[in-house]
Amino acid sequence: MRLCTRRRSRTLRLWLLIVFLSLHLLVVSLVLSISHTSCELHSYPDIQTSISFSVQNASASTSTMTAAGSDTQEVEMDITKKFFFLLASIIFLIKTKQQSRIRSTKRGFSKKNAGGFRYKPRGDCFFFAKVRQLCFLCSCKQTLVSTRLTGALQKSGGTQLKLVMSFPNYGQALFKPMKQERHEETNVNLYYFSDFERHNAEIAAFHLDKILGFRRVPPVVGRLVNVIKEIKDITTDHKLVTTFFTSPVGNACFYGQCSYYCSTEHAICGRPLKIEGSMAAMLPDLSFAPRRSWRSPWRRSYSRSKLAQWEMDSNYCDSIKTTPPYDRGTRLVDLIDMSILDFLMSNMDRHHYETFEKFGNDTFLIHFDNGRAFGRHSNDEPSILAPLVQCCRVRRSTLLRLHLLSLQSYRMSDVMRASLSQDPLAVVAPLLTEQHLSALDRRLETVIKTIHDCLQQHQHHSDVIHDDIGDYPGA
Ligand SMILES: Nc1ncnc2c1ncn2[C@@H]1O[C@H](COP(=O)(O)OP(=O)(O)OP(=O)(O)O)[C@@H](O)[C@H]1O
Ligand SMILES: [Mn+2]
């Protein structure tokens, strides 16, 4: 009898082991394939090949378009894939939770993938960073758009109201509510530092950054949020609750606490209940993936009367070029990439940028905080291009991408329009007005002309072009 029970329990254990091992194998292969392909699918595969192909052959096929714009589309997973992904995610989450606890005590992260690190689950936004770019799995967008919200807290720091929203699986997103209609231009008498932050600018900046091939803005999507059910009823912030009220026309409003525009006059109101906003995927917690904040050498003075040094000294770049970390590697051209992005969307508010500490100085710049972009379409701000004008340096890959987006068939405004139409809020109204889209084409011409002027002023192309493609024949 006892022998029989023992034999039965041994068979049972054996079966359990087989089931466990096969499940494990399945999960490992799925996770590996997902984490591998996702970055390929979403990370501008083979940008050099795509661009060189189209520049050489202006009538390039749709494969080039994939690199320029349509790769902003999320990959739709079919039901089976979704099921397996869910299964993999659940087991993976449990495993990663245990691992991350061990790793976070070491204050580091795994460097399993060549030149990259992973993973910190933030909801479904499995995060993956390479030395050169940010990468999120495809389910991330869906999480931001439709996962139930379980918490809303005001984010401390910063000047304007923004909320950290939580998902049931402890994932988080940064919510910036709509403060201004899409067609409204910033009042000309407002200084750049007191301009409103725009939710559609955060969304559009994410798309533009991708189209430019940078991938340095964390994913941002638009979402309609119920002011009462998804903020007031779920927040544990009692001070925030006291700022809710019903407007004279019956809309649910609140204003929160912050140093700019947190008052009844600038209340954030639903229509009557729902309000548009941008949801940005949160990067891993600082304890897991520490970041360093850098003051931009071309930071504005944030004063009504003072000028910054770079505005007074035309040789300013000479000193920056010899100052670490701008004296070596790609830091200077990365900063110039950022100034091109900012000029295109007219963002004057780039006071700081951040990097992941783990990658040291040889890494990309994270382009956070784009809410003050796309304020005025009728005006271009040449001073934003100062790093390019003063240093006359640019990555070859950036120049090629700009050339591509200036071609009739891949016009920047067309690619942006197509890309932005993928956002859930595009059904309410286009994320950028046509005036803003055509401003992009106009500003692109200015950037290209500036680079050509630099080439004329310098004897050798290599003085201007930072060759990050190597074997690509002349730009
Ligand atoms: N997606 C994100 N993931 C993680 N941290 C983020 C994210 N977005 C912003 N942050 C952090 O929060 C800080 C404030 O965010 P943001 O700059 O967007 O707000 P802000 O109110 O415009 O700030 P400021 O007034 O200082 O410009 C950022 O500097 C960054 O450190
Ligand atoms: Mn800001």
Q: If you had to describe this structure to a student in words, what would you say it looks like?
A:
Its cofactor is Mn(2+). Keywords: ATP-binding, Disulfide bond, Glycoprotein, Golgi apparatus, Manganese, Membrane, Metal-binding, Nucleotide-binding, Transmembrane, Transmembrane helix. It holds the Pfam family Fam20C. ATP binds at residues 160, 176, 197, 280-283, 354, 369. The chain has 475 residues and is of the alpha+beta class. The chain folds into three domains: 22-136, no CATH class; 140-281, no CATH class; 291-466, no CATH class. Helices cover 41% and strands 13% of the residues. It contains 16 helices and 15 strands. A five-stranded antiparallel β-sheet has the order 4-5-6-11-7, with helices on both faces. Helix 2 crosses helix 13. It is globular. Mean pLDDT is 80; it is low at 1-5, 28-79, 96-114 and 471-475. Manganese (II) ion binds at residues 349, 369, 371.
